[in-house]
Write a structure and sequence with these properties.
The chain is an alpha/beta fold. The chain has a single domain, classed as Response regulator (Rossmann fold, 3-Layer(aba) Sandwich), CATH 3.40.50. The chain has 3 helices and 4 strands, in the order E-H-E-H-E-H-E. The protein has a 4-stranded parallel β-sheet, sandwiched between helices. Strand 1, helix 1 and strand 2 form a beta-alpha-beta unit. Helix 2 packs parallel to helix 3. Bound molecules: magnesium ion.
Amino acid sequence: MSKILIAEDNPVNRELLRELLEIRGHTVAEACDGEEALRVIEQTQPDLVLLDIGMPLLDGFGVIRKIRENPRFASMPVVALTA
Ligand SMILES: [Mg+2]
């Protein structure tokens, strides 16, 4: 099973994704803005990031840029989510 970060500012969307992933046995971490997403990535080194594009403080594009600049996370799988 995988460790998955949900980076999403909408709490309803976070909850839905969490339930879908946990039912399948995955471990879920959450972040509700782009800066928190970067902190949680540092702390938990997830196997996959589900990344909302529209988020406060730092949007999804900014998060991807930061992730790819860091050699430790340059190949981390990221799936961009947008309404
Ligand atoms: Mg959003």
